[in-house]
From TrEMBL:
The keyword Transport does not apply. Putative odorant or sperm cell receptor. Belongs to the G-protein coupled receptor 1 family. The chain crosses the membrane at residues 23-46, 89-118, 138-162, 198-224, 236-258, 270-290. It is a multi-pass membrane protein. Its main location: membrane. Residues 39-288 form the G-protein coupled receptors family 1 profile domain. GO terms for cellular component: plasma membrane. It comes from Ailuropoda melanoleuca (Giant panda). GO terms for molecular function: G protein-coupled receptor activity; olfactory receptor activity. The lineage of its organism: Eukaryota, Metazoa, Chordata, Craniata, Vertebrata. PROSITE patterns: G_PROTEIN_RECEP_F1_1, G_PROTEIN_RECEP_F1_2. This is Olfactory receptor.
Length: 310
């Protein structure tokens, strides 16, 4: 029988063990984190104060930005702390809390992306019914589902993480408490956690991705039937930003979670996680603002209004 050990804290090995890179990584990720906060909080405020950004698409975008702020904030501050700390530890309770919010926010984000794809389908394929079918009450109900479902599923997944047992090895080969490296060092409760992680991730990513793919398949069919070249170009331009965000997010998540945890996959996963916990939340506001005429006009009006106020 394994000699199970009570756990009070874990040691996070971080991105690298090379001391000469610690300060450099701290500066880089601090800058990225600040840009992420400013960009996403700015997007939420801009959408809330701009009359031209009161459509369902921007309502959902504001929630995507809101989730990105918490998604990045769940991981980055602890990573920054450990980059400059001699004792790179996290308490057992803190580890479970970080796991809980990480899994919850991942599920919330993938389903918000699916809801945004459905919204684009309604706007392009059913423009005459769009205003009545996508009312504010409907939008609130649609956006509530990802939050309720994501935090409920995460509770179940975290209870399975709580069921893992450890036998003296408390070093997590990562910069945050993630399921794959925790499974790698556990000596009990591993099989149920490993297979439920893959099954739940597979079901949710597949279902939400199917909503995205079906929505965009119908959009492409509708757009190709349009006689106006300007209409086709405008329809595709409203979808380009969302497709870019979907491709980046789903691609990294599939690479991370739909594989069995091995030493090699955990090591590769570090770089992937850096991308979707820090880089993608930073890029999303840029993607949606630089490629969106309405957002750029709202930014210019907000700047002009601020200058007049001075």
């Amino acid at each position: 029988m394994p000699n199970f050990t009570d756990v009070t804290e874990f040691i996070l090995l971080g991105l690298t063990s090379r001391q000469e890179f610690q300060v450099l990584f701290f500066v880089v990720f601090l800058v990225v984190y600040m840009i992420t906060l400013l960009g996403n909080v700015g997007m939420v405020i801009l959408i809330s104060i701009s009359p031209q950004l009161q459509s369902p698409m921007y309502f959902f975008l504001s929630h995507l930005s809101f989730v990105d702020v918490w998604f990045s904030s769940n991981v980055t501050p602890k990573m920054l702390e450990n980059l400059l700390s001699e004792t790179k530890t996290i308490s057992y309770v803190g580890c479970l809390v970080q796991c809980y919010f990480f899994i919850a926010l991942v599920h919330v984000e993938v389903y918000i992306l699916a809801v945004m794809a459905f919204d684009r389908y309604m706007a392009i394929c059913n423009p005459l019914l769009y205003g009545s079918k996508m009312s504010r009450a409907v939008c609130v109900r649609l956006i509530s589902v990802p939050y309720v479902y994501g935090f409920s599923v995460s509770l179940i997944c975290t209870l399975w993480t709580y069921g893992l047992h450890f036998c003296g090895n408390f070093e997590i080969n990562h910069f945050y408490c993630a399921d794959p490296p925790l499974i790698k060092i556990a000596c009990g409760g591993v099989h149920i956690k490993e297979y439920t992680m893959i099954v739940i991730a597979g079901i949710n990513f597949t279902y939400s991705l199917c909503v995205v793919l079906i929505s965009y398949t119908l959009i492409v069919v509708t757009v190709l039937r349009m006689r106006s070249a300007d209409g086709r170009r405008k329809a595709f331009s409203t979808c380009g930003s969302h497709l870019t965000a979907v491709t980046m997010f789903y691609g990294t998540l599939i690479f991370m979670y739909l594989r069995r945890p091995t030493e090699e996959s955990v090591e590769q996963g570090k770089m992937v996680v850096v991308f979707y916990t820090t880089v993608i939340p930073m890029l999303n506001p840029m993607i949606y603002s630089l490629r969106n005429k309405d957002v750029k006009e709202a930014i210019n009006k907000a700047i002009a209004k601020a200058n007049l106020g001075q």
